[in-house]
Design a protein that fits this description.
It is built from nine helices and seven strands; from the N terminus they run E-H-E-H-E-H-E-H-E-H-H-E-H-H-H-E. With 247 residues, the chain is of the alpha/beta class. Bound molecules: nicotinamide-adenine-dinucleotide.
Length: 247
Amino acid sequence: MGKLDGQIAVITGGARGIGEGICKIFCKEGATVAMWDILDEGEKTADRIKKEGGNIIFQKVNVTDQSSVNIAVEKLIGEFGKIDILINNAGIIRDRSLLKMTRDEWDRVIDVNINSLYVTTKAVLPHMKEAKYGRIINASSINAFQGAFGQANYSASKAAIAGFTRALCKETGRYNITVNAVAPGFIKSEMSDSMPEDIIKAGISMIPVGRIGTPEDMGHVYLFLASKEAGFVSGIVLHANGGAMPM
Ligand code: NAD
């Protein structure tokens, strides 16, 4: 028996990286997963997970676009009648020191990383409220709390996610809906691979468990917060960073 048997889960940014890891673990635990991504490669990722026995569908969705999100939600509600879990994982970086950062680099990161939470949650929450059940989990970051050179836009967006999470949990608790965040540390993905090699090496050397995190590590962290058993955990940021920043 899987921990998520019978559950319908939306996972944004699932085409690769951490999102793909969450999709795999949730499928293994019996969830039916709707993977949302702006990239067409989401289709191939979903096919791979299907071949391993996963119950997964790919929906091409831009999480910053309310009509794109609404269409996907209506399709899922039409087919399954409910959405139990919403994982707001999609995110981007546009790193540059503030003196050189363009307004577009600032706006894009704020739009994808934080404005999207308004868009997706606005569409899904009414259905969770009606069902009197829900698990909403948002992707923050270790860099929301420790800061990082060249990431004023990214760190600000990820810190805003912690505030959003704490505030929303107060509104939704009465409907049996929990809202939490995960703050991953250094995790292997295309996002982290895009960093200079010396920064990657220095980052790993500062992790007490002696290795970079994997998307599957993160899948298990999200799984805990998404499970029915975590119903008394709400409004927290779960730090998963191999001990790099004990909180
Ligand atoms: P990634 O770049 O590998 O994957 C992000 C996914 O989000 C991609 O598939 C991308 O297409 C999708 N996406 C981007 N914009 C979108 C949009 N508008 N609509 C729909 N999908 C969109 O990144 P990752 O490393 O897997 O990171 C996943 C999340 O975890 C992000 O929110 C990131 O900020 C956070 N995070 C990552 C790390 C890390 O070390 N990798 C650390 C802390 C936090």
